[in-house]
Amino acid sequence: MRLGVFTPLLSQMPLEDALAKLKTFGISTVELGTGNYPGDAHCKLSMLDNPEDLKKFRAKLDDHGFSISALSCHGNPLHPDAAIAQKSQETNRKSILLAEKLGVPVVVDFSGCPGDSPQAKAPNWVTCPWPPEYLEVLKWQWDEVVTPYWIERGKFAADHGVKIAIEMHPGFVVYSPETMLRLREIAGPAVGCNYDPSHMFWQGIDPIAAIRILDNAIFHVHAKDTQLYPTNLSSTGVLDTKPYTQERSRGWIFRTCGYGHGAEWWKEFVSTLRMFGYDDVLSIEHEDSLLSAEEGLSKAAQFLNEIVLKEKPGAAWWV
């Protein structure tokens, strides 16, 4: 297992400078945004139509000794606004094609969230089964919007030798292990998850127990922590809609690895991932509102470098 970094936290730097900085932390793997929410500061989809740009991009990574763990295009491909949905879908499609050309195994995205009908203007995330119209909305979403799109997109990815890793996140139809496996059953084995434990913590889901449920559906992993504030949670519950910058009054906030849970927890997390077949990249994602990107990256890299299992254990001496 090895560390990587999701590079939007370094988006103010040219790619060459970002790679040089990451080398100082002993990191030589990156996850690159290609558009939608992460932006495309370091990886332009226009390279698909320009072989010379693609060649220069490959050379830049090779010269610095870097590999790419994933291309990420988190968006809402099911948005009820057709223009937004089309943009997200096209960015996903081109990301898959670019991943194929670059030999990158995974494209990360959100599942998306439709509205409540064909006439909707905004997404509608259903969170409870009553009154009964909510379940009618949820059924319509999955039957009429989620299923057709993801069957087609799962096949497209498989045809191009790329896996799609869905990041489970509230606000979208896939936000939990149960909804992730439901989508995977519909879309096929080319669709799995980008596993971010921070999103499990604040929903009250044990991230380590969830690894056992997800099993071989884990295609990529984000390294990000969450700190819970029980006193505030008693007031807010887990569905806290206050801005992330209102740290004093929120029930939870995202934290740099080690600031929400200690080394013992992260050691068990990494060990359980390996136990269930994931022995690849932990991609550091910085969203800690209490630390700068520079400090968050350095703290996470230092903390996780002491924890990642760098070598697979061999046979026991008595075998």
From TrEMBL:
Supply the alphabetized keyword list.
Isomerase
Residues in domain Xylose isomerase-like TIM barrel?
20-306
- One Pfam family per UniProt: AP_endonuc_2
Give yes or no: UniProt keyword Isomerase: yes
- Keyword Isomerase in the entry? The reply is yes
GO MF terms listed in the record are: isomerase activity
The name of this protein is Xylose isomerase
| Source organism per UniProt | Edaphobacter acidisoli
